[in-house]
Each structure stands twice: as structure tokens, then as C-alpha cells.
Specification:
Layout (H helix, E strand, L loop, with lengths): L10 E4 L7 H11 L3 E2 L2 E7 L1 H6 L8 E3 L16 H16 L5 E3 L5 H6 L7 H9 L5 E5 L4 E4 L9 H4 L2 H17 L7 E5 L14 H15 L3 E6 L7 H4 L4 E4 L2 H11 L5 E5 L5 E4 L16 H21 L1
Parallel strand pairs: 1-3, 1-5, 3-4, 5-12, 7-10, 8-9, 8-10
Antiparallel strand pairs: 2-3, 6-7, 6-11, 11-12
């Protein structure tokens, strides 16, 4: 693919796990959007045969991987791992080289890749390594809510000792900078949830909020940011509360993901913050149980493509 100007570079969509619903929703989104989103063409990256098996027209734009893959709906195979990984690597290289405006990743299966020697826990960590980013932060976003979990896939019992004031400050700054750069919010507002019920209720329900979270909020405020907290999570997500902030930083996985999946189950988007490239993904997995049945819903993939385009345009505007 030739190198276009950065403003109209294509949005790349990776193949994901060939046996899952990723290629299906990628193809459906490509068709629904007519191969284009705003000023950006769409391009799929992977084995053309996999996309063809999902109904993609032969005239669609596909960046073919050198490694081959086979589509066997619902039956994952380690033989496809090289093509899955190559699709991601190619997309990131093109984005870093300004041949692409953004990368949208279809879901991968971590267990299948790990069995072949893939050493990264998932997409986020792999993208961080490929881009040499100091830190990558996961945001779940929709038109109704943006949330960031401070801790992600760890047992709930381990959360308190995984928290630190410095880590919360670092995450908060990444989120605030991304709201300005990627979402074009000139003066972003960040709400910070407390760890304990009622944000500790002055120490009666736990001391972590006063000892760890509140100093992080104070430090962010001292840097000139519009930050509030620690706030009681049980009153943080109703409509009036959501109108008072642009993103919520939560202390653990379910505190962040339950509200957004309740509000935006079909159109939530996984966004990786802190990278030098724009990356989004649908907020669902490979869904092997429905792959190939025609039941896969492409709304989250379409939302991920739309958000990637908006973020890419916001970055381009800020860059001048």
C-alpha cells in the first residue's frame, strides 16, 4: 500500500483469531461502512482467504500476511498463530511509519497464542512492546461513559496492595493527556473512584482511600488538572454524575467494567492509551460458540472503527 498523507491515511483492521467472530465482524463492519470512514479508507490485514470465507468481496482492500491461516469456525488452531501475530505487527509498523492513521484489532485467543510461545499476556502488552511505550493504559469508552481500571486482571484480594499513589498519578496523567490529544477535550475532567464503600467513609470502612487515593488526587490537582476524588463508586455512574466528568479512573476491574457494560454492552470500545499510535478494539472476545453461525454482532467493531477515526482526526488536528 502506498504511503498517503497522514491526514487521510487508512484505518487498519487486523484479522484476529481466524476461528472466532473477529474476521466476521471485521468483514461486516467493512461492508456496513462501505470500506470507508470519513476521509479514511478501511483496510483489512490478514490472510485474504479467511476474510473471503466470511463473505468479503474480492475487490476489498486487504493487506495480506506472508504467513497463512485457515478459517475453521469455532475450532482454533495454533497453526494460525503466525498469521495472527504478523497481522498485528504489520498494522503497528504501518501506523508507526505514518502509513496508517489508526489500528483496530479484532479479538485474539490468548491461550492459543501462548501455546505456540507467544510471551505477552494480551494485545495491550504486545502493542506496548511493539511501540516501545513506557506504559499502556486500558480505557473502555462509549458515547455515554469512559472508564479506566487502575488494576485489571488480578484477584480482588490483591488490589489494595497493588495500589500506590505514584501509580494512580501516572495513570491519571496518561488519561488526562489522552483526553486532550485523542478526544479533543481542552480542559478534561477526571473523576477518581475510591477503593472502599463510600470512599472509606473517613477511615471507618478502610484506610486506603485516605492514605493512597486522596494524595494522588491532590498531586494531580497540584499539577493543574481538574480532578475530583476519591468519590464513592456507588453514586459515580448515574446520568447527573456522569455529566460532571469526562472519564472515571476506577481502582479495580469490575468497578470500571460493570457500569460501562451495563450502559454500552453492544457499542463499548477498548482503547489503549499511552501509545504513539491510535489503537481501538471491540469490547468482546472471540466467541467461538457462535462463530460461523451468523449470530455475531458487529456493532462494537463498527464503534471501534468510528472511535479510531475520531481519535486519529483529533491527533492530526492537534499536530497541525
Amino acid at each position: 500500500m502506498s504511503k498517503p498523507s497522514s491526514g487521510d491515511a487508512p484505518i487498519l483492521i487486523t484479522m484476529g483469531e481466524p476461528a472466532g467472530i473477529g474476521p466476521e465482524v471485521a468483514v461486516e463492519a467493512y461492508k456496513t461502512l462501505g470500506g470507508r470512514i470519513g476521509r479514511h479508507a478501511l483496510a483489512l490485514i490478514g490472510d485474504p482467504g479467511v476474510f473471503g470465507a466470511c463473505g468479503l468481496d474480492e475487490n476489498a482492500i486487504v493487506v495480506a500476511t506472508g504467513a497463512k491461516a485457515a478459517r475453521a469456525a469455532g475450532r482454533p488452531s495454533g497453526a494460525n498463530a503466525a498469521a495472527v501475530i504478523e497481522a498485528i505487527e504489520t498494522a503497528v509498523a504501518m501506523a508507526l511509519g505514518r502509513e496508517a492513521a489508526a489500528v483496530v484489532t479484532a479479538p485474539i485467543n490468548k491461550a492459543v497464542l501462548a501455546a505456540t510461545g507467544f510471551r505477552h499476556p494480551g494485545h495491550t502488552e504486545f502493542l506496548q512492546a511493539l511501540t516501545s511505550a513506557p506504559r499502556a493504559v486500558m480505557m473502555l469508552a462509549s458515547d455515554q461513559l469512559r472508564v479506566v481500571p487502575q488494576t485489571i486482571h488480578i484477584p480482588l484480594a490483591d488490589v489494595p496492595r497493588a495500589l500506590s499513589t505514584a501509580a494512580i498519578v501516572e495513570t491519571g496523567e496518561i488519561v488526562l493527556n489522552a483526553l486532550m490529544r485523542d478526544f479533543a477535550i481542552a480542559r478534561p475532567r477526571l473523576a477518581v473512584a475510591g477503593l472502599n464503600p463510600h470512599a472509606g467513609e473517613e477511615g471507618v470502612l478502610g484506610g486506603e482511600d485516605a492514605a493512597i487515593v486522596a494524595p494522588a488526587v491532590a498531586a494531580l490537582k497540584a499539577k493543574g488538572h481538574d480532578v475530583r476524588g476519591p468519590l464513592s463508586a456507588d453514586t459515580l455512574f448515574h446520568p447527573e454524575a456522569r455529566a460532571r466528568y469526562d472519564a472515571a479512573l476506577c481502582m479495580y476491574h469490575d468497578q470500571a467494567l460493570i457500569p460501562i457494560k451495563t450502559l454500552s454492552f453492544w457499542d463499548g470500545v477498548n482503547v489503549t492509551l499511552g501509545l504513539p499510535i491510535v489503537r481501538t478494539s471491540p469490547d468482546h472476545g472471540t466467541a467461538f460458540d457462535i462463530a460461523g453461525t451468523g449470530k455475531a454482532d458487529a456493532r462494537s467493531m463498527i464503534a471501534a472503527i468510528r472511535m479510531a477515526a475520531h481519535m486519529a482526526d483529533a491527533r492530526a488536528t492537534m499536530a497541525g
